[in-house]
Design brief:
CATH class: Alpha Beta
CATH superfamily: Ureohydrolase domain
Helix content: 25-40%
Largest sheet: 8 strands, parallel
Radius of gyration: 17 Å
Number of domains: 1
Shape: globular
Strand order of the largest sheet: 2-1-3-8-7-4-5-6
Number of strands: 8
Bound molecules: manganese (II) ion
Structural class: alpha/beta
CATH architecture: 3-Layer(aba) Sandwich
Strand content: 15-25%
CATH topology: Arginase, Chain A
């Protein structure tokens, strides 16, 4: 049984509500590694990443560059050793580091499935909040004025990038993604076809039948009734049971998973915390 590395992104300054910085700490304290190993997915904590500042503007500087470069380095370390990885956030700007690492390792030959209530495709000019967690997908696609904090020269291939579950976005984001040719599965598509069918199509698009792929899951994609522990909940999301069932039916295993925006301060009866364990188990169990 290969080991899966847990990487904590203990940072919330890319969000307007920084409470998600505590998410990975809490999961570490509650022995996420042992829980998963007992359920048949052998995991270990590899590292935790945080920054010593409360100024979100500093993320756009050398400080952000080194934060994301360190995260990318640990992702590359895992892949080089033939191990899968799970980044646990923390705000969704983690994606800049996580997937820069994967893009470096695979030299750009890589697809990404982005499950999120939002498009995360703002630039610094179009973002109403200025929060970096609204920009990571645009950054990875190499657009506009954010790529300087990425640690890769490779961009995500928009044709092998899929969004699932979006329902809250600005027109500028939609314009960028449709111009680039990114595939978007809205909540309507999920209601019509079912999440398992949508996810299977997304894997086909992301892998182009053979290339490796990853999944970036923003917990706010899930309906807030099932996953209240997030910073920016949006009603009408993915049903948690349907998500778990769809992940169990994935046609192939991702090289890595990112679970972002876990904010313990908003959780209710540990619903979101327990769901994170179930999500990881559902993704890897059949391959463990
Ligand atoms: Mn997001």
């Amino acid at each position: 049984m290969a080991v899966v590395n847990l990487i904590g992104f203990n940072t919330g300054i890319g969000a307007t509500d920084p409470g998600c910085a505590l998410g990975p700490y809490l999961l570490h304290k509650h022995h996420l590694d042992k829980l998963l190993t007992a359920r048949g997915v052998k995991t270990r904590w590899l590292s935790h990443h945080s920054v010593k500042t409360s100024s979100s503007k500093q993320l756009f500087s050398m400080l952000g560059k080194s934060l994301f470069a360190n995260l990318a380095r640990d992702v590359q370390f895992s892949l080089r050793h033939g191990e899968n990885f799970i980044t646990i956030g923390g705000d969704h700007s983690s994606a800049i580091g996580t997937w820069s690492g994967a893009l470096n390792y695979f030299q750009g030959n890589f697809g990404l499935i982005w499950i999120d209530a939002h498009m995360d495709s703002h630039s610094r000019q179009t973002s109403p909040s200025g929060a970096l967690h609204g920009m990571p997908l645009a950054c990875l696609l190499g657009h506009d004025d954010i790529p300087m904090i990425s640690s890769t020269h490779h961009k995500l291939d928009p044709v092998r990038t899929c969004l699932i579950g979006v329902r809250s976005f600005e027109p500028e984001e939609q314009k960028l993604l449709s111009e680039l040719g990114v595939t978007i599965f809205s909540m309507k598509a999920i209601q019509k076809q079912g999440l398992a069918a949508v996810l299977t199509q997304a894997v086909e698009i992301a892998t182009d039948m053979q290339a490796p792929f990853g999944i970036s899951l923003d917990l706010d994609a899930i309906d807030p009734y099932d996953a209240p522990g997030v910073g920016t909940p949006v009603i009408g999301g993915v049903n948690a049971i349907e998500l778990l069932s769809a992940l169990k039916k994935l046609p192939s295993t991702p090289i890595g998973l990112e679970i972002a925006e876990f904010n313990p301060a908003h959780d209710r009866n540990s619903l979101t915390q327990n769901l994170i364990v179930d999500i990881i188990q559902a993704t890897w169990q059949q391959y463990a």
